[in-house]
Specification:
mainly alpha; 48% helix; globular; 0% strand
């Protein structure tokens, strides 16, 4: 897009190196100059370099699910947005039909279930709009690994219960190997597909989890202990609101909620351009990049008694994304 807007045209002649031909200093310098000019043309008007940072494949599905169960999916994401989301998911589907933790990872049960549910919510049918191979995991049922559809349905440990829509009823049939109402959730809590089992589960681990689930959770819901739980929930909401207000609602997950790694990419890009020692040729690019870095520096510490909110001083630092986000990063600052 920027190349068209700027009507960029490469004026540096192309250097060709034949097979087994020695690469000369002049040839290498020409290639470097071409790359530097091309990269400079990709710079945005405010001095940063836009770039996609969408590797994880477990971030979009929960957002789509939350918007679906709250009834705001169509309002937040119009039809064209949903089409592009489906395109993105299909483009990163592995050959075995599944999805991994990120775009280059092998398939696992967790992300396969998440993305399958996401696609169904976005309008795809059970067989998909494209040829979609069936993903088979070592432990059988998709949902046995994560029990995810219960987030959309009924489960005692959750206080919020979504309305059971026809789509949720269909997902229960599609994702389970047995009728949903016959599943004994206590018995399948520790089942895990081999693709998701990065470390063997220890007996002591299962005992601790079962104790918390069977005894501690019911105990915390009864008076007077539930007063402590309510206090904890109030403190949690206080932290959430504080984080929203101090980051202009981008929060610490700036990569997913804003424009990606703006400052990170810009600083590394400028370092590469400076190493080319072409200041006379790309001076305006370097000046715009410097101006962006200067304006991106965090000017103030978090508001109020930020130490009680487990925050640290950040005045004078730089973030991973932009100034508004406010979370200092040591390597970006360096």
């Amino acid at each position: 897009m920027f190349l068209k807007q700027k009507r960029f045209k490469q004026i540096i002649r192309q250097g060709k190196v034949e097979n087994e031909e020695e690469i000369t200093y002049e040839t290498a310098t020409t290639a470097m100059r071409k790359a530097a000019h091309f990269f400079s043309a990709l710079q945005a008007s405010d001095g940063h370099w836009p770039g996609e940072n969408a590797g994880p494949l477990f971030l979009l599905p929960p957002l789509v699910m939350c918007l679906y169960i709250t009834g705001h999916l169509g309002t937040v994401f119009p039809e064209e947005y949903r089409k592009e989301m489906l395109r993105f998911i299909y483009c990163h589907q592995n050959e075995d039909g599944g999805w991994g933790l990120h775009v280059e990872a092998h398939s696992n049960m967790y992300c396969t279930v998440l993305n399958y549910i996401c696609m169904r919510i976005l309008g795809e049918g059970p067989d998909g709009g494209k040829t979609m191979p069936a993903y088979e995991a070592g432990n059988g049922s998709l949902t046995m690994a994560v029990q995810f559809p219960n987030l959309l349905g009924e489960r005692p440990s959750f206080r919020f219960v979504a309305l059971i829509s026809p789509l949720i009823l269909q997902l229960r049939e599609e994702l389970h190997t047995q009728p949903y109402n016959e599943i004994n959730w206590k018995k399948v809590r520790h089942l895990c597909a081999k693709e998701n089992l990065y470390f063997p589960q220890l007996l002591i681990q299962d005992l601790v989890w079962d104790s918390l689930y069977i005894f501690t959770e019911p105990f915390l819901t009864r008076w007077p202990i539930n007063k402590l739980r309510n206090k904890a929930l109030e403190m949690t909401m206080k932290h959430i609101h504080y984080e929203d207000e101090n980051s202009w609602y981008t929060d610490i997950a700036c990569v997913e909620k804003t424009f990606g790694s703006l400052l990170w990419d810009t600083s590394l890009g400028l370092e590469a351009l400076l190493a080319c020692k072409l200041t006379d040729e790309i001076g305006p690019t370097l000046m715009k990049g410097h101006d962006y870095l200067n304006k991106s520096q965090v000017r103030d510490n978090p508001s109020g008694d930020f130490r009680s909110m487990y925050r640290h001083i950040c005045k004078g630092s730089w973030t991973f994304s932009d100034q508004d986000q406010g979370w200092q990063v040591s390597d970006c600052t360096a």
